[in-house]
């Protein structure tokens, strides 16, 4: 790890200004940043610590909106009884994301901005990584191991997978992200925060230099109460998803009135399965229709040889999450 300058920001405006300098990075909980600095993937000249900005802490469940401060800790939100009752999938996507130690330290803002777990990105012994070293190539596409890679949203330059759990829930439930930068504030639809790799995989979000995520907001909808986050992984604790699904249901008798399906562990960016949602609205939810929705969710997947298993696995995960969500509203 190289030497760097350290600044503890006293205000949000000061943090945005300091972070806009060339070579500067933001740090809060540090669970991703410090990790990447240790392995030489990130080498900032300066770190701007925003962990003391109390206005970015806390979370609130209102009648119409849920507001999550960017500095709210994963464990605090995941363990809140009000969150568990109002929006189970939110709690589950946080609870299943990391070890207790990391959940106690990691912030929501940092979580949604975490970097890929692609081994070729994280191991600097591999020179071929367009995301880490633009223009160098992609070791995964050049005959490398691809079991952890994206089957949606990849390009000829990069097939790295976005690894976060929380993001699958946020993209399914129309979250927005509030930011503050040197130029002022703005609100970004969460579905537009991350960008597909295309020819520039080193650009991962639409955030400008110095722009800081301050909060995450979601409109309250009935489907939140009957929601579930299901995650398939190599081991039960602290492992990234091979495939996951965040779903929510609103039923009118036996008919699906509203359904939300977000996918994790399978795409280059947080991914919403809109075609699968459309297949269920206005129809009964049975094991057969749940499995068909799972099939539709992965119908357009473009796997590599090593990642082809994610199609069948992901379809099963979607079906299982839907049926579990239905059981939470007394359905059979």
From TrEMBL:
Residues 1-223 form the FAD-binding PCMH-type domain. InterPro entries: CO_DH_flav_C, CO_DH_flav_C_dom_sf, Diverse_Substr_Oxidored, FAD-bd_PCMH, FAD-bd_PCMH-like_sf, FAD-bd_PCMH_sub1, FAD-bd_PCMH_sub2, Mopterin_DH_FAD-bd. The lineage of its organism: Bacteria, Pseudomonadati, Pseudomonadota, Alphaproteobacteria, Rhodobacterales. Keywords: FAD, Flavoprotein. Transmembrane segments: none annotated. SMART domains: CO_deh_flav_C. This is FAD binding domain-containing protein. Pfam families: CO_deh_flav_C, FAD_binding_5. PROSITE patterns: FAD_PCMH (PS51387).
